[in-house]
Amino acid sequence: MNTSKKLLFGLLGAMSIGFLLNIQLMAQSPEIIPLENFFKNSDRTSYDISPDGKYISFLGPYESRMNIFVQKIGSEKVTRITSETDRDIAGYFWANNSRVLFLKDSGGDENFALYGVDNNGKNQKCFTCFEGVRTQIIDDLEDQEDEVIIGLNKRNPQVFDPYRLNIKTGDMVMLAENPGNIQGWMTDHEGKLRLALAIVDGINTQVQYRATEQDEFKPILTTNFKESLDPAFFTFDNKYVYATSNLGRDKSAAVVFDPETGKEIEVLYKNDDYDLSNISYSRKRKVLTAASFVSWKRERHFFDETTKKLFERLEGELKGYELSISASDKAEETFIVRTYSDRSLGAYYIYDKVKDKLTKIQEVSPWIDETKMADIKPIQYRARDGQIIHGYLTLPKGVEAKNLPVVVNPHGGPWARDNWGFNPEVQFLANRGYAVLQMNFRGSTGYGRAFWESSFKQWGLTMQNDITDGVYWLIQEGIADKDNIAIYGASYGGYATLQGLVVTPTLYAAGVDYVGVSNLFTFMNTIPPYWKPMLDMMYEMVGNPVNDSIQLEATSPALNANRIMAPLFVAQGKNDPRVNIAESDQIVEALRKRGVDVEYMVKDNEGHGFHNEENRFDFYRSMEKFLSKHLKD
């Protein structure tokens, strides 16, 4: 073979090998899944069951809004019983065997009104359609078919008074007048209003108690808000209270509390590493059943052998999935079971305890193939001061964990936490080729009181460092491409996005701020009226606009926008009652004055986050284009 032929063959051979490698890589790359598949309404979700166990109900789309549907067990016929077209139904429950109650707001203002409708779709009625008034559910009064107890801030926008509502006649009777400091009410097992949770002197929490509804509420326990006893429900003789409590301890434990003496009388269960998040009971059998806590997944401690065996039975058949029992009939013979995982929104099942039969009802999102979803893995890293920070890392499926573009996704709250499970935002970003880092920075809940308190007056400071140190960890591990990192968050996560662009202006190639705080002074001045009684607590947790003005000025992104270099995309609901639209307006105006690239999306019919399906599509479609533009593929 002459030299020219060798060279030609060599070039062709190299091209062919390269072509084949490209084909192989393309075959291994994850399939691009339509954006709508991640964010469209589920066909059927939020299943419930009527008290007599004869009907199941669910939320499903009608005219792109989530409405209520009812189906008799054993029948294929489904009846839509609501026809809301302006706004999704926010939540619902069975008041009795024939009547369903639901909540809905207007345009995202979070002033939820309570409606009732028959299980055949007739006789719909609004019970609390008062302008500017928000409805709370205090007790569904399961044993009193025609009544519920609700809270309304009708008399005073800052506080909620409890009312007994007759759902047949619409008549309401005020059970007590809120003196101005009560933040929550609790009934006993007979539906009697017996406990009140108050804020006194701005920063102290107080449990108030009365033996009967004829008595006056009297304070029985007062503590600084950093300590808390959270009543869950009365003991079954209505004498004591089951509660979670961190009084005198770092982690919340399950306790029995005596309201007559204001003392804990028994510790039922505690975990050395995590706060308890929930305790539950059987209404029929009148026993305590389980306590829950979250490590990197939800875990349970069982008090009751019957409940333990029930979960073991279900987990045995539903291997590979986490599960919860979301509803049951009054006889506790028929249960609604929900499964989920990090790669699946899961499915709903009916479990007939008498027949010991588990029947699948519906996949929540049958169009999602979980084999094409990414794994969400727990991780931990050490912050610069030595604090261990826990979180989750999601890598694009089928891609080596090396030199990847990354989206850093701090959670909202900030006194909340990220959990393991299916997250459509995370899966969407991973499908588009991004690694996603979520972290439970200090202040995240579930890790004890000391970890929570360490966040006080640390917005934009050590809390932000925890986020930044997670990014540095990803870079050091070789997972992140240091030139292709974006930060995206909502609410407090939006604030952390803006603050990240301020304090580490060269770390991020782009940022996405979704309903985020930008100015801590104006944020404090525009909170909803029912947050006003907690304002002194917020001053201690975030900062006082007068006493801490220098710090708040330094940690308000809108007041330091001159440091932002990266392009920014901002999304905001016009009617947001928590983070006023002025927060987004300020940062956009400040950056545009400097000529920084800012995209700004405002939805006139939304509040704190976009709930209408078409708005979600619009937001994520714009975010996808924005990230693709500013991060290298």
Structure explained in plain terms:
This protein has 633 residues and is α+β, with helices and mostly antiparallel strands. The protein is 21% helix and 34% strand. It is built from twelve helices and 35 strands. The chain has an eight-stranded mixed β-sheet with strand order 28-29-31-30-32-33-34-35, with helices on both faces. Strands 1-2-3-4 form a four-stranded antiparallel β-sheet, with no helix packed on it. Strand 26 and strand 27 form a beta hairpin. 39% of the residues are buried. The model is unreliable at 1-28 (pLDDT under 50).
List the helices and strands and how they pair.
Elements: H1 3-28, H2 35-39, E1 45-49, E2 55-62, E3 65-72, E4 78-80, E5 91-94, E6 99-104, E7 113-118, E8 125-126, E9 135-139, E10 147-152, E11 161-166, E12 172-174, E13 182-187, E14 193-200, E15 204-209, E16 218-224, E17 229-234, E18 241-245, E19 253-258, E20 263-269, E21 276-282, E22 287-294, E23 298-302, H3 305-317, E24 322-328, E25 334-340, E26 347-352, E27 357-363, E28 376-382, E29 388-394, E30 404-408, H4 424-431, E31 435-440, H5 449-453, H6 462-476, E32 480-490, H7 492-503, E33 510-514, H8 520-525, H9 535-541, H10 549-554, E34 568-573, H11 581-594, E35 598-603, H12 613-630
Parallel strand pairs: 30-31, 30-32, 32-33, 33-34, 34-35
Antiparallel strand pairs: 1-2, 2-3, 3-4, 5-6, 6-7, 7-8, 9-10, 10-11, 11-12, 13-14, 14-15, 15-16, 17-18, 18-19, 19-20, 21-22, 22-23, 24-25, 25-26, 26-27, 28-29, 29-31
